[in-house]
Amino acid sequence: MGASRAGAPGAGSPATIRGATLVDVAVEALLAPSEEAFGTRRDVERLLRSGRRAVARRLAPSAHPHAYLAAMDVLLAAPAEEGADAVAVRAFLEAGTERALDVRVEAARWLRRMGDPTGLPVLVASSLQDPESGHATRGLFRGAPEALIEATAVGATLLGSATIEDEVLEQLDEAAPGPRERGLEHLLAEASDPVVRSDVIQRLPRRPTRARKLAALAEVFAWGGAVSRELTGRRLRPHLISGHELGFTRLHENRIYVTPLPLLRGERHGRELVEGLILHEIGHHRHHRGEAEEAVWRRADRAGLGKLLNLVADEHLERNLRAFDAGYGDRLKRLAAYAFRHASRDVPVPVLLEALGGRAFDVLTRGRLEAARHPESVRVATGPVLAELERRGSSFARFVGALRMGLGNRHGDRRVDEALRLFGKGFRKNDMEALLRITRELHRIFGDEVELVEAFGGAESLEDDPWDRATRGEGIDDAEVQQEAQRIQGPPDASRSGRRGPARPVINVGPDAGFDPIHAVERVPPDPESHRAQARRVARHARRLRAFFASLGLALEPQRMRLRGRRFDATRVRPLVTRADPRILVARERRRRTDLHLSLLIDCSGSMQGPSMERAHAFGVLLTEAVRGLRGVDLRIFGFTDAVIFDAGDARRPAVTSLEPGGGNNDAAGLWHAAREALRSPRRARVVVMISDGLPTECSVSALRALVRRLTRRHGLVCAQVAVRPLEERCFEHYVEVDEASLDRAVHRFGRIVADLVGRTLRA
Q1: Residue 748 CB: number of other CB atoms within 10 A?
Q2: What is the pLDDT of residues 423-473, one digit of tens each?
Q3: Lower CB density within 10 Å: C or N end of the chain?
Q4: Report field, pTM of the whole predicted structure over 0.85
Q5: Helices H / strands E in the chain, number of each
Q6: How far is Cα 549 from Cα 557, in angstroms, rounded to an integer?
Q7: How far apart, in whole angstroms, are the C-alpha atoms of residue 51 and residue 26?
Q8: Using CA atoms, how far apart are residues 658 and 641, in angstroms rounded to an integer?
Q9: How do residues 495-527 score in pLDDT, each as one tens digit?
Q10: Three-state secondary structure call for residue 339
Q11: Are 146 and 182 in contact (CB under 8 A)?
Q12: At 633, which helix (H) or strand (E)?
């Protein structure tokens, strides 16, 4: 490097070697690949004197530390003077990852300030290593090219680090909509962490398929609740499995756990398979529950026969359910076919090898093995493995096919015949002790071959896959399914018993269009003190609404036989001629013809507890104060639950503040009672306003919708609903949601709604 002296300032023109300056030669030497460091920092500094920024640009991609460090010190010290600086810094980053990390990070930040996203992956990696730096570099994907964002997402998933995947997910929030969605889709498909996948689902736009899947699962779970009541006398609530667990039930609980994957994957007969899983677990409760039965299960587990007893119990419950209902039998047969012939499952390698024994090599080399999510497991297709075991002479595999698949002893195996005789005509009447004896006999007949049930059991071996669930389930969780199922199957038992108190919000969306009328009517005593307190709160709004009611029905009506007017009355010609009667004009005079019956109906179910009932009280008091003493307006107030109609009086004797929430609600019956009261009124205009949370339980949504339609079209009533929470089902032609947090704003809006509705009714 001593030759570089020739290029020092003041030494005249740089020396040349065959047309190239010594600076060019030195730079080329520093850019040449070498396994050893070349040159010193001092040499590079002397070289930079010949043209500081120009030489630094050329040295930026050098592999020699002294060269690229000195060059980057020059280039990163100030903003770019021209595009060439950015080209040089990009060349440094693109030269490889063996350069000093801190310099690479600074170069990436420098480019980012210049609006160049080339160093984006470096900045993402840096933010992972330093949390404080991560907060400082939020928005890295803002304005970045789509290809670069996708490459970063791909790199994150290749590393298999949940921390890196989570950081890329956070950065994607700042990307443009198109690249953001494609990056999220890649994370959803390839992320190694199920929590990251779940978070991705929450960020992706909801697709139409999600609502269909949720509705289908809710219908299946609601069906399972109804079937469990029929079969066991109790409502067993189906739930989604969480994690890697298998389908199961705890016989001392009223819950069953199943995987929804056959339905979510869109597999053939997926719905029937999930229903079969639910039936299977209900069958255990029906036939294998009790203290004595649980003692038998514990003895079998201690003897290492728990899985084999479960196989026997599966056949026992399925035969009993098939005898109870042929439709149940069809679902269970389809489930058995899926579990033993079409399903794939992740099996721990030691369990698989022990179950296959000496046949492991022959069987596994003939089948297809796939990578499992768990590092110590392998994904195995059940059907081909069992078929190969049968072909290679496994008596127990042949027995499983004969018993659970109904295939019979196709191979003429003597041990299979002996085992099948244990499952004769009286088998389904056996108790748990007898089932345990059959289990021990099977162990005697087949010996260690029964270990196959550890790897290839029945319906309970259909495991859930959290990765697949996150992808196929589109973020559907158990809480959502439970809420939707509750809407379909009706309220919990407590609401039917008439007990008062808080209730979960549920809704009956069943197909039944009929309803049971409520005949019990209770007169509610007024509470003047609470009414006065509410009246003070709504006084300002009541005055405005009263002024509106007072102005209703005003019209210019023609009045004949007047001395003053705007129109000549031809019928008065004869009196004018014969009697000289001058009253021959027609005048229009303002007359009041308000003729209104207004019924207010308030939902008093347990789901109205708290702010919802407080709003209903305020709305009721608002109306009573607005119409009190007005001629031509009648007001009647009612409350209702699932069993009682509460008569809360009228504008002269209001008891609206005495209404309390509790029990279920039969919206159709409450509306029918208020409608009959309105139909008995001689008033020309009749309006029924229902205040509720929009969640009928003891009648179906179909019944309420049909009743509203009949009252409107056949009887000419105007029916409106004011919902104090967002409506899940629309039953009224006229409806509105009044769920403002401020009671004052809610009262004001309610008054405007009623005024508009009544005004339109009278004008019509």
Answers
A1: 19
A2: 888 888 899 899 999 999 998 988 878 777 766 665 554 444 555 555 555
A3: C
A4: no
A5: 34, 18
A6: 19
A7: 13
A8: 14
A9: 443 434 444 445 555 544 567 788 888 999 999
A10: helix
A11: yes
A12: strand 633-640
